[in-house]
Design a protein that fits this description.
The complex is a heterodimer of chains A (about 170) and B (about 575). Chain A is built from 4 helices and 5 strands. Chain A is of the alpha/beta class and about 170 residues long. Chain A has a single domain, classed as HybD-like (Rossmann fold, 3-Layer(aba) Sandwich). Chain A has a 5-stranded mixed sheet with strand order 2-1-3-5-4. In chain B, helix 10 packs antiparallel against helix 13. Chain B is globular and about 70 Å long. Chain B starts with a strand and ends with a strand. The chains are: A alpha/beta (about 170), B alpha+beta (about 575).
């Protein structure tokens, strides 16, 4: 029942930024997405960048048929604000199992848990996130999170390069 | 002795909601409180900005409905500046609106609400042969119903349950005696849950076609940003329109052959839920889906109007621009008004926080004090319910044939009268019937668009008055729509080319509202009263009624983290 005419790219690597632009540090993932996509040297058919906002199941379609997915988001693990987190597929899955399905939430975790129902060959998933300082109405990042952007960005770039190396066919690279 | 059940957070909703229910000695709910526990105040962000950009910020408010806030926002600016949009823009907006409605209602039924009625764990005990027979009886026009299909579905669920990562299936009260479906009906419902999940990710491509991108499609003050050229490349062309046509047909298939049969089948096991959860009996609808421009209210597919005290013999006129009709009260909300007023019309509205609640974590809130971050909107002093049930009732009471037909058919199948609609089950059924109407209208709006394009009209935007130099020094406007969860309105005040004030009253502010200055309950609170609970420690009855409203405490934040939260607590005193 799948119909696509280039509306959703089938690039093997997906970079998915998540967060609410209007809630200060909640937007950390969107900021990383913006910076990462701006200087991307990869072709559209190899790497797709998606601003998922705070959408939940509506993003399910974007997770289909990928070899690898990088999720960029604010990640609250109780560390100091601005701490950069790097989690692999298993670590992300473990978070999902322990958590209530509220929606201030791990919409993303619920999304991934749901996607697992459909994946026959699960993609590699890496989460690059920043510990938020403040989640409150407003636009912009707090200083500690702002200061962590270069480190998180470097990490995301490195992961992306590895994913492209591993999953994008040579003829298009 | 009285018992207080605290559910915080209410799960499987968007946003953060806390409910406290006070039970009598027989475990019947005799009083209730609904509290939005997170401060938002997004209106503050919009002050001083260019009104033409407001929609892009508004689109970020909600975790589900990006399009409806964008639509209400551009309509408010057009209303303030006196801009009339071209016919194609209304048609495309209607198509996007109806797509959102259809997608959202299916997702709500299967993914947020069904688990209140369907026991996933019981589905594992089902016999695939008997399930196949049941499915062919319930949904005769749905292709996937073989024994092998149900064997595979059962295996998928088992694998999922065995993995220990229940994800979307966790935090329900599996095995609770209030679950009445036999294992086979549960398995069928879970299989259809998975089918609906697969479908919903396809249908949103309609937004991508017309909005240029998704999940945050483009709108524009004056019309739509969609460039149309039937013969062209890289714009909206005949190939893309054909895709939309086929997606609409799939949507009709899902709703007619899966959603409605499942809804009626599940409802037939829970007849007692036509007696509980009715609540206020007051219903408010702004109306939407214009057929002759947004200013001709008489030509809306969803008629405007209000019903008081369940009186279906009278539909009262509504005017959201009337300063005396809609007011937001704050007697029980954590806000203050500078003049000390009890209520203000949104054009005069003020968003100034004044938290006087207890320090978190707290055991309980005080219903005699302020207890919510939501204001209490009132229509002519009345607490009102908004949403699918309100829309179906106002359509029905207005004598509209289409509404009478779908409502009459469903009531006939369930062998109940119209009074059954004033209930939790009535609210859930109304959403399905509305989806049925909407997918039918979606086809018609799409056909109208194609006809208009073929007649040579490809104009999608009116750019007169785009430049701020052409604007009056000061103007006010409002933009309303009927979001999936109910009446939504944005009120804007423009001064010296900038936003001077912006107030949004979202559907869940009506429904989840706290008490007002007269002590009148909000819709959720009122709907909970009178419901008996089988086991207060596992409050599935509270979830059924609250979920029947499809709560959305707008504007989810999105931090990923492992803080396992307490879901229900019972205090006996």
């Amino acid at each position: 029942m799948t119909v696509t005419i280039g509306l959703v790219s089938d690039a093997p690597v997906l970079v998915l930024g998540l967060g609410n632009l209007l809630l200060l540090d909640d937007a950390a993932g969107l900021r990383l997405l913006e910076d990462l996509s701006r200087d991307s040297k990869y072709a559209e058919e190899d790497v797709e960048f998606v601003d998922g906002g705070t959408q939940g199941l509506a993003l399910l379609g974007y997770l289909n048929d990928r070899k690898a997915i990088i999720i960029l988001d604010a990640v609250g693990l109780g560390a100091a604000p601005g701490t950069v987190h790097l989690l692999d597929s298993d670590e992300v899955a473990a978070l999902g199992g322990r958590r209530a399905t509220t929606s201030h939430e791990g919409n993303a975790l619920e999304l991934l848990a749901t996607a697992r129902l459909f994946w026959e060959d699960p993609p590699r998933i890496t989460l690059v996130g920043i510990e938020p300082g403040q989640i409150a109405t407003g636009i912009g990042l707090t200083p500690a999170v702002e200061a962590a952007i270069p480190q998180a960005l470097a990490m995301a770039r490195k992961v992306l390069a590895e994913m492209v190396q591993a999953y994008v066919p040579c003829h298009t690279r | 002795m009285s018992t207080r059940v605290v559910v915080d957070p209410v799960t499987r909703i968007e946003g953060h909601l806390r409910v406290e229910a006070m039970l009598n000695g027989s475990n019947v709910i005799e009083n209730a409180m609904s509290s939005g526990t997170m401060w938002r105040g997004l209106e503050v962000i919009l002050k001083g900005r260019d009104p033409r950009e407001a929609w892009a910020f508004c689109e970020r408010i909600c975790g589900v409905c990006t399009t409806v806030h964008a639509l209400a926002s551009v309509r408010s600016v057009e209303n303030a500046l006196g801009i009339t949009v071209p016919k194609n823009a209304d048609l495309i907006r209607n198509i996007m609106f109806l797509t959102q409605m259809v997608q959202d209602h299916v997702v709500h039924f299967y993914h947020l609400h069904a688990l209140d009625w369907v026991d996933i764990v019981s589905a594992l005990k089902a016999d695939p042969v008997a399930t196949s027979a049941l499915a062919q009886k319930v949904s005769p026009h749905w292709g996937l119903a073989s024994e092998g299909y149900y064997r595979d579905t059962a295996a998928t669920i088992k694998k999922f349950v065995d993995s220990g990562q229940l994800g979307i299936f966790q935090n329900a009260y599996w095995g609770h005696p209030a679950y009445k479906l036999p294992p086979e009906a549960n398995l069928m419902a879970v299989a259809h849950y998975l089918e609906a999940l697969k479908w919903q990710k396809e249908v949103v491509k309609i937004h991508t076609v017309f909005g240029g991108k998704n999940p945050h499609p483009n709108y524009i003050v004056g019309g739509m940003a969609s460039a149309i050229n039937l013969e062209g490349d890289g714009v909206i062309n005949i190939e893309r329109l054909n895709l939309v046509g086929s997606l609409i047909n799939q949507a009709a298939d899902i709703i007619e052959n899966l959603y409605i049969p499942d809804l009626l089948a599940i409802a037939s096991f829970y007849p007692e839920w036509t007696k509980y959860g009715g609540g206020l009996g007051n219903y408010l609808v702004y109306g939407d889906i214009p057929q002759n421009g947004i200013s001709d209210v008489s030509k809306f597919r969803f008629p405007r109007g209000a019903i008081l005290n369940k009186n279906l013999n009278e539909v009262l006129p509504v005017d959201p621009a009337d300063l005396g009709q809609i007011q937001e009260e704050i007697a029980h909300s954590w806000y203050k008004y500078p003049g000390g007023q009890t209520g203000l019309h949104p054009w005069e509205g003020v968003t100034e926080a004044n938290y006087t609640g207890p320090q978190a974590p707290y055991k309980q809130l005080d219903e005699n004090a302020a207890y919510s971050w939501l204001k209490a909107p009132r229509w002519k002093g009345n607490a009102m319910e908004v949403g699918p049930l309100s829309r179906m009732l106002v359509g029905y009471a207005s004598g509209k044939t289409e509404f009478k037909e779908v409502v009459g058919a469903a009531l006939g199948k369930l062998k109940v009268g119209p009074e059954a609609l004033f209930s939790t089950l009535g609210r859930t059924a109304a959403r399905g019937l509305e989806a049925q109407l909407c997918v039918h209208w979606l086809k018609q709006e799409f056909d109208n668009l194609i006809a208009n394009l073929k007649a040579g009209d490809t104009n999608t935007a009116n750019t007169v008055n785009w430049k701020p130099e052409t604007w009056k020094a000061e103007s006010k406007g409002l933009g309303f729509t009927e979001a999936p969860r109910g009446a939504l309105c944005h009120w804007i005040h423009i001064k010296d080319q900038k936003i001077e004030n912006y107030q949004i009253v979202v559907p869940s502010t009506w429904n989840a509202s706290p008490r007002d200055s007269k002590g009148q309950h909000g819709a959720y609170e009122s709907a909970l009263i009178g419901t008996p609970m089988a086991d207060p420690k596992r409050p599935v009855e509270i979830l059924r009624t609250i979920h029947s409203f499809d709560p959305c405490l707008a504007c989810a934040s999105h931090v990923i983290g492992p803080d396992g939260e307490r879901l229900a607590e019972v205090i006996v005193r």
